[in-house]
Design goal:
210 residues; alpha+beta; six-stranded antiparallel sheet; three-stranded mixed sheet; elongated
Length: 210
């Protein structure tokens, strides 16, 4: 009788990693594996240190990390990332969990705010609420809200084309300043706050119109 290997996997959106994150991933993988390879473009490296010593650029946009025992693949791609572990040993679930804890905090959150699906849901909900319940909205506020909705997917397209997965071969603390490290998160939180304020305004209008 042979136990069938199980697949553990998790997908992420775009991520931003630093050299210390890569060292953390390596330390987890080498707990059980003596073979960890790092592949970017047409180059394959037998260790992280070999990559750091020989890769000429300061940034990597796509990286594939493979190890065996258990068979593990970490894909850091342009628009998405993933972790895959294949094993029949329960203890290897701990390896998977540790890897996820490294990647999850680096994921660029709130990307759904920039999807066209979100845009149409908010727009249709706004017009249904406005005309079904016949409440008045100041023209300036109405225009500002529509301008914001139109600009949302445009800015989202720019984000997805410019702010994709990125691996910086420097320590996290060496990155220039707080704003450069976190400006995308700050902007996304502001946009999320504006959407939340708009939804709150619509709810208040609906309640007051009853």
């Amino acid at each position: 009788m042979e136990k069938i290997s199980e697949h553990l996997g998790k997908d992420f959106s775009m991520v931003r990693l630093y050299r210390d994150d890569l060292r953390h991933l390596e330390s987890i993988l080498t707990q059980t594996s003596d073979e960890v390879t790092w592949t970017t473009g047409n180059y394959k490296f037998e260790s992280l240190q070999e990559l750091l010593d020989n890769y000429k650029k300061n940034e990597i946009k796509e990286l594939l990390i493979n190890s065996r025992l258990p068979w593990t693949t970490i894909e850091l791609r342009h628009y998405r990332s993933s972790i895959s572990v294949i094993s029949n040993e329960p203890k290897d679930e701990g390896i998977f969990s540790q890897l996820c804890k490294v990647i999850e905090p680096t994921e660029q959150k709130f990307q759904f705010l920039f999807s066209f699906k979100t845009y149409w849901i908010v727009l249709i909900t706004y017009f249904i609420a406005k005309y079904a319940f016949d409440f008045e909205v100041h023209p300036a506020l109405h225009g500002s809200f529509l301008t914001f909705l139109v600009s949302l997917p445009i800015y989202g397209s720019w984000i997805k084309s410019r702010r994709n997965t990125l691996i910086k071969l420097i320590e996290r603390h060496e990155d220039s300043n707080f704003w450069n490290r976190n400006k995308d998160k700050v902007i996304l939180l502001l946009i999320g706050g504006l959407i939340g304020a708009a939804i709150t305004f619509l709810i208040d209008q609906l309640i007051s119109g009853r």
